[in-house]
Amino acid sequence: MAETITIDAPLTWPEIAAIADGARLTLSEGARQRIVDARRIVEALVERSIRGYGINTGVGALCDVVISRENQHALSHNIVLSHACGVGEPLGRSEARAVMAAQIANFAHGYSGVRIETVEALLALLNADLIPRIPSRGSVGYLTHAAAIGLVLIGHSGVVDGNGEISGGEALSLLGISPLRLEAKEGLSLVNGTPCATGLAAVALSRAERLFDWANAAAAMSYENLGSQANAFAAGTLSFRVSTGLQNVGAKLRDYLQDSPMLAATAGNRTQDPLSLRAVPHIHGAARDVLAHAGDVVNRELASLTDNPAVSGSPEAPEVHSQAHAVGAALGLAMDALAVAVAEVAAISERRIDRLVNPLVSGLPPFLARDGGVSSGFMIAQYTAASLAAENRRLAAPASLDGGITSALQEDILTHATPAASKVLAILDNLKTILAIELLAAAQAYDLQPHDAGRAQRTNALYQRIRAAIPAYADDRPMNGDVELMRMTIMDERAPS
Questions:
Q1: What's the pTM value of the predicted model, to 2 decimals?
Q2: Average pLDDT of the chain to the nearest whole number
Q3: In a 3-state reduction of DSSP, which class is residue 416?
Q4: Of the residues 102, 107, 220, 304, which has the fewest C-beta atoms closer than 10 A?
């Protein structure tokens, strides 16, 4: 049975990532009451005709157009329809679930004012794994992705049910829910805030954490094949540099390489190893430090209201606040930093691949081919890694500085948090492929070592794990099939801890 996560206190990014992977989500009684109380405040604002952005006014550059009470339902309905202009391939199931979970968590703070029926409908879709089709492109912040979810609530668009796509109306019918008639403010709240960027960021953090573990494993295998410096990752000397991430990676490498006969046999052959080998704790560790910081930012985002306007007070003294809590500047900056960190981990992996296949430095057969000349071995696999590392450098350009002007100068600065999170996911996918190539190349390098000194216990276990699924390469099949098998292993299994 799937894990169930209950919203009471603010959720954390690992909880959002767990929901993305299939965990169920429920509301505590306290969270439910906060939603109900906030709705009563919105109703009081409507009753007293207190002006509130998107409640009884237009949105964007139309914020000064007052909307009559009888047209406030139409305003909410029209906001969802007009903002649903995303394009491109849909988000994956995990990404879409994460966005929905972050959206529900945002409403549960009790400052948005949507009806409890609306939140319950979102929960029902999520827990039934009826996931709205969310176009992945077209957002400078959050509006288009979130509107795609809102469409389903009013019976439009499509839902992926595990077997294909059904209409939003059919999905609601399966749950015994009628299409919602959105009330004042609900249309704006459904498209507003940073849940889209926050959900995607949580998925990115989870994938980065897993891939960084695999990067340590791949680096250990490559080092054992190529390294010769005695005690390169000694705890005492690594402690001279202050970094939690560096110490973490150093410990992992020592664990992987403990009592390696191969390293014992070559110790002292070089005074100093090349940077792509000896700087693994420093580069992987720095990336882990960035990952930890990004995680803190996402957790703060999940603990914050990111709707605009916010409502507070009481039905007797209702308050509405038009500020900029929906601006995801912190998220954009954090995701831009994480994008660079992931690209850096991919870059050093590609450099290690080059050393494994390059006979000028490896001491191994050229390109790890058993019959060089007739066979090309891993020659072009390294090209693929180099291509993806170069693509990562282009993707790592900061999204948060893209700027732009929308809504007739009303929205005249954009921080692009959602595109920042999206490009981290793209870079992570490239990292997965590069690591798959490194792991395969390192396994092949073991097969071709001129002297069978023996591997460390943990690297040998990883080698055996790879060889149980993928035999040594002999130019006897398309290389991309092996890479895809290795990618699937990385995706489905965690690196040995």
A1: 0.95
A2: 92
A3: coil
A4: 304
